[in-house]
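Hi R.,

As promised on Friday, here is the backbone we talked about, encoded as structure tokens. Could you run it through your design pipeline when you get a chance and send me back a sequence?
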């Protein structure tokens, strides 16, 4: 188990929820190494939607948040949650309709708070549900404000059939000078029993050290 791993955590440089409206579950094992002593230089950035979600019903904690929790627990990484109250108290269909309109218009909804200082972080996990083929538009508002060029980005998604959607290619377009690697996806209905899948993914990476 990962708790037995001494000090080295490997992950990537070459080559993870949804209300999802659209696949396949998948992960790629990255190739460069980050040691556990450098976990202080790793950040998990995510957006997660609680309330009514497809397949899992009305949930108090969003699917992506739980995956982010696993990653932070298993690696010791710091975290930043992209928050907005725009979708609060919406039923599933309404939220889908709103998300679709945002995507079609290229809308950039506001998020709460301000961008954290990213200067101390070399590797950034970026996670969200797949809404209409990619990350929710509020995440793109954050991407506009947060320059991650020059860093290693590890995308992850939760979904109900969309897999990674266009998230990887969209991140590469937003951050052309970043290394976007090690992508991972997990079905939303598997998340609450899925810690072992996240753990196995990281364990597979550590074997490459």
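Update: got your reply. Pasting your designed sequence below so it's all in one thread:
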């Amino acid at each position: 188990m990962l708790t037995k791993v001494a000090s080295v955590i490997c992950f990537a440089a070459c080559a993870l929820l949804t209300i999802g409206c659209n696949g396949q579950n998948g992960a790629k094992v990255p190739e460069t190494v980050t040691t556990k002593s450098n976990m202080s230089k790793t950040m998990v950035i995510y957006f997660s939607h609680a309330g009514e979600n497809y397949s899992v019903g009305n949930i108090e904690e969003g699917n992506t948040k739980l995956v982010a929790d696993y990653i932070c627990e298993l690696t010791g990484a710091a975290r930043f949650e992209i928050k907005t109250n725009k979708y609060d108290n919406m039923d599933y269909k309404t939220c889908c309709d709103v998300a679709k309109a945002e995507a079609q218009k290229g809308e950039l909804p506001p998020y709460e708070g301000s961008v954290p200082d990213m200067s101390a972080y070399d590797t950034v996990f970026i996670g969200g549900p797949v809404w209409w083929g990619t990350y929710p538009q509020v995440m793109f508002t954050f991407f506009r404000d947060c320059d991650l060029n020059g860093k290693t980005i590890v995308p992850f998604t939760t979904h109900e059939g969309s897999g990674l959607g266009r998230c990887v290619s969209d991140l590469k377009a937003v951050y052309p000078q970043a290394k976007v690697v090690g992508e991972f996806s997990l079905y939303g209905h598997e998340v609450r029993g899925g810690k072992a899948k996240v753990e196995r993914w990281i364990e597979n990476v550590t074997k490459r050290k």
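One thing I noticed while checking it: Strands lie at 8-10, 33-35, 42-46, 51-53, 57-59, 78-81, 123-129, 152-159, 179-180, 184-187.

Thanks again,
M.
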